[in-house]
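2024-03-11 09:14:02 DEBUG pipeline.ingest accepted 1 chain
2024-03-11 09:14:02 DEBUG pipeline.ingest length=438
2024-03-11 09:14:03 DEBUG pipeline.predict start
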Amino acid sequence: MFGKLFATLVKDLLLLWRDRAGLLVLFVMPAVLVVIITLVQNNVYKLMGETAARVILVDQDQGELGKQIIERMSRVEMVTAIAGETISEEMAIDLVAGGDFQAGIIIPAGTTSGMIAEAESEVRSSLTADTPVKKGAAPELRILFDPTVMGGFRSAMQNSLAMVLMEYEVRTKIDLLSRLLPEYVETEMKKSAGNFAEYIKVPPFDLKMSTDPILKVRAASASRDGLAVVPTPVQHNVPAWALFGMFFIVIPMAGSLIKERQEETLSRLMSMPVAYSVILAGKIIAFMLVCCAQFTLIYLLGRFVLPLLGLESFRLGPEWEAALIVVLAASLAATCYGIMLGTICKTYEQASMFGSISVVAASAIGGVMVPVYAMPAIMQKLSVISPIGWGLKAFLNIFIRGGKVSAVTGELSLLLLFSGATAFVAWLIFSRRATTGS
């Protein structure tokens, strides 16, 4: 039996080897996709605030506020002049609208003096109830965004600018309070002192407060053992597009079965003392080996080639045994799905069309192209039916969350159930055709 199984395995590997164009698609396509998509997504991450953005500053006020914005927003490359020429508001709008800068901040003239005047009015009102607050003395700052910039970057920029303005406003009010409070206390004491008023002198206050926060927030990835890896385009795309390529094995797998059926090769094999289960087992092992080779290629690409393109290296993590088990389970699911397609479809065109569409759809709803958490609620619910989504979730649990085999038993069970279900459907259809002779 093992001799027949080995012969079937060798036969299918030789057939695959002769299909050089098919092998090229299976190995080159996911490799090219993982490089291109990772480079593109890495740039998107930068635009969303992971690295410094270019922001143009039009400071018509020329006061202290502009200096504070440049100093405090240190992660942003702040440009105030181009080729020695001061940037006007019209130039800033054109440059931001054209995509040369991600954002532009415009500080109108009189902003600093207006803010100080309004802050002084608020401080005096807090000390003396009959002093009205003068609102509207300070003009509004404007922040312009490149129309193609996404919401995450916009929110980050607005929040950062709001924090700088709040800090400057609080510091200004503290300085004003230091100056006005002694005057107010001295005035009120003299009103009650009568003849001793001339002897009352309140010493100046000097309220100095640090702007460093007392309560600090430390961000970290949640992990039971402290081994969690920061999610990056590399850590997501390497396993994601490896799975995409592995499931594309369904097209040559189904095509092989259809070709053998059309050329009556399968009938001749069945006339020999070889069980159909042995023939299928040989095919499954052969195509699983190809899937494992695909994953190995994508892993090596992420480990050694992507760093040469300016990206970080893909990290497999300490639980490589768990990753190997997921690779085998996903390979089995892909090959069994290919067997079902090859059994159901009557022509190669049917198998290639349905196979490619189903794999692309499963990849899309499974989180290969867009992470599941970023999808609409209805798509997140649909993602639970995607075999590629199960495999990707298992890989992310291992590579990013540092999980062991026990952490992915649910996904492994689903992949194995999918494999068994598709193989069973293929067996039923084959048995029915063998009985009816169709």
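2024-03-11 09:14:41 DEBUG pipeline.report The beta strands are 54-59, 77-79, 81-82, 85-86, 103-107, 142-145.
2024-03-11 09:14:41 DEBUG pipeline.predict end
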